[in-house]
Specification:
about 180 residues; mainly alpha
Length: about 180
């Protein structure tokens, strides 16, 4: 599947700017991690996983990570793409555990990119470029801030990767700096 085909599929099921922007943020974050973690030859695939991870969320929020599997199977998409995107719903909506390092990264950064984005909006600079880990950690501890971003999922993702929460946050900030203001 090409990036263009993936975008066409995504926009067939998603119309809201927020969801489309989130998909692209996760896409680019996944590509960054592919390169950083030594999977450069799979960078585009990691990006597709990030782009399509919430394929079903806008239209089927109650069947998130379930309906997307049906849609992708109907389109004849490869099983590893289906498994990877569905695994980010592990222990939330599905019992498909993230196995590959790529799946663990997706699980960890999906919610975290949302939290970081909310932190950035509160900053005077409105930029990720001058963002520090401690600023994100402060808001991470405030359960009412960006309440839709699951701290439990973020922490579980860091644990799956064998990383500290600080390291996950720092690396995700670095990823976002490569393509955001």
């Amino acid at each position: 599947m090409t990036r263009e085909e993936a975008w066409e599929l995504l926009t067939e099921y998603n119309k809201e700017e927020f969801h489309l922007e989130h998909a692209q943020i996760v896409e680019n974050t996944m590509k960054y991690f592919a390169q950083k973690l030594g999977y450069g030859e799979e960078k585009e695939f990691w990006g597709l996983v990030g782009l399509l991870h919430d394929l079903d969320f806008e239209q089927y929020p109650e069947e998130h990570c379930i309906k997307s599997q049906e849609i992708m199977k109907e389109r004849g998409l490869e099983e590893r793409l289906i498994h990877a995107t569905a695994s980010h719903g592990y222990a939330i909506t599905v019992d498909i555990e993230p196995v590959h390092e790529m799946e663990k990264v997706l699980y960890a950064v999906d919610e975290l990119t949302g939290l970081i984005g909310a932190v950035v909006l509160m900053r005077p600079s409105k930029s990720v470029q001058d963002l520090k880990v401690k600023s994100v950690k402060k808001k991470f501890k405030s359960k009412n801030f960006a309440a839709g971003c699951s701290r439990e999922v973020i922490q579980r993702g860091a644990d799956m990767l064998g990383w500290t929460l600080d390291d996950l946050i720092a690396q995700t900030i670095e990823a976002l700096k490569t393509f955001q203001e």
